[in-house]
Automatic annotation (TrEMBL):
Organism the protein comes from: Yoonia maricola
Family indicated by similarity: Belongs to the class-I pyridoxal-phosphate-dependent aminotransferase family.
Protein known as: Aminotransferase
Keywords: Aminotransferase, Pyridoxal phosphate, Transferase
Known catalytic reactions: L-aspartate + 2-oxoglutarate = oxaloacetate + L-glutamate
Enzyme Commission (EC) number: 2.6.1.-
Cofactor: pyridoxal 5'-phosphate
Classification via CDD domains: AAT_like (cd00609)
Lineage of source species: Bacteria, Pseudomonadati, Pseudomonadota, Alphaproteobacteria, Rhodobacterales
Residues in Aminotransferase class I/classII large domain copies: 32-392
One Pfam short name: Aminotran_1_2
Subunit structure: Homodimer.
Length: 400
């Protein structure tokens, strides 16, 4: 009899967390390290949200709450979906978890059986396939190439659907590419899904408010209301509201699915932090005035990083529509040798050599299901981004 669960053999630790940890270790050892691996804004949670948390503590709102969210927060979430997405939900259709990650995981645990398939466009957030595997399902990846602007086509989606398909997992704007689907592009996908009534749709809309230029965010059930009854629309307060550590994610969908997810949460974590929930009420109901200036800041950083990385020999960096990531290709670097003598066989070797030789921490593309690439998070200062990009350019110029 083995001690550890065989299920763990199916999954791997999060590469993004591993990169962030390694960068922190090198910094602690005295190395000059610029971390571009973490997916969290570098500015503080807005003051009105922090004040709401302090007020909740002062009022003694520090006890257990309902398993999947206080009534005030569920009402605020319903108002948000109505205001921002034209989606009508009742509080009984809403669940609140300890971050969007738990909400996604709860949905998979509540619905997947052995043999059930989940279609996941690649590049994907590193945790998607492993959550499916932990829940007993089978991830089916559909590759979205750089040439296609990291977006899958209707034909690709159609070809991936089988009688075993239970979910289509959709993320726009994307982590790791920042690619965002327009209304017409998403309508092509929802038209396919209308023809397959056994397939449910799970959306990860965490980067909804991080959209730049002329790109306008939209979500599947908004684009095609006929899919409303088989769509779980997932969101949270972590990115746009700079509340990553507060750990509040939420979703709305059919009541029978929400009940099943509540059952999973009742036997795992129970309620999210009570204080964080009250802060999230203020985030959703309070002023949204900071969103626009924050977006302007992120858009400037995006343009800086894209322009500089495209000066690096062997790198091609497309301009994304949203989020705070770029996903450059290093196809032109493969097979070359670094100044320190490392042969760049793949993107993991590239990222390791880049960190060891220049002190710039990025996440290698294989972790996201599409190589040879790497992910840069530009949710840090302009000065740090400029210095990091200069080091990347020098590293690539030194390849022979």
């Amino acid at each position: 009899m083995t001690f550890l669960s065989a299920t763990l053999d199916r999954v791997k630790p999060s590469p993004t967390i591993a990169v962030t940890t390694k960068a922190a270790e090198l910094k602690a050892a005295g190395r000059d390290v610029i971390g571009l691996g973490a997916g969290e804004p570098d500015f503080d949670t807005p003051q009105n949200i922090k004040d709401a948390a302090v007020a909740a503590i002062a009022a003694g709102k520090t006890k257990y709450t309902a398993v999947d969210g206080i009534p005030e927060l569920k009402e605020a979430i319903c108002a948000k979906f109505s205001r921002d997405n034209d989606l009508p939900y009742e509080p009984s259709q809403v669940t609140v978890g300890t971050g969007g990650k738990q909400v996604l995981y709860n949905a998979f645990m509540a619905t997947l059986n052995a043999g059930d398939e989940v279609i996941i466009p690649a590049p994907y957030w590193v945790s998607y396939p492993d959550m499916v595997l932990l829940a007993g399902g089978t991830p089916v990846t559909v590759e979205a190439s750089l040439e296609a602007n990291f977006k899958i086509t209707a034909a690709q989606l159609e070809a991936a659907i089988t009688p075993q398909t239970k979910w289509f997992l959709f993320n726009s704007p994307s982590n790791p590419t920042g690619a965002g689907y327009s209304w017409s592009e998403l309508k092509e996908l929802t038209d396919v899904l209308l023809r397959h009534p056994h397939v449910w749709i799970m959306t990860d809309d965490m980067y909804e408010h991080l959209a730049y230029g002329n790109f306008k965010f939209c979500t599947p059930a908004q684009v095609e209301p006929q899919l409303y009854d088989r769509t779980l629309t997932v969101n949270g307060v972590s990115k746009a509201y700079a509340m990553t550590g507060w750990r509040i994610g939420y979703a709305a969908g059919p009541e029978r699915l929400i009940k099943a997810m509540r059952k999973v949460q009742s036997q795992s974590t129970s309620n999210p932090c009570s204080v964080s929930q009250h802060a999230a009420v203020e985030a959703l109901n309070g002023t949204q005035d900071f969103l626009a200036p924050n977006n302007t800041l992120f858009e400037r950083r995006r343009d800086l990083v894209v322009s500089m990385l495209n000066k690096a020999p062997g790198i091609v960096c497309p301009q994304p529509e949203g989020a705070f990531y770029v996903y450059p290709s290093i196809a032109g670097c493969i097979g070359k040798t670094s100044a320190a003598g490392t042969v760049i066989d793949n993107d993991e070797v590239f990222a390791t050599a880049l960190l060891e030789e220049t002190g710039v921490a990025v996440v290698f593309g294989a972790a996201f299901g599409l190589s040879p690439n790497f992910r840069v998070s530009y949710a840090t200062s302009d000065a740090a981004l400029k210095e990091a990009c200069e080091r990347i350019i020098m590293f690539c110029e030194g390849l022979t």
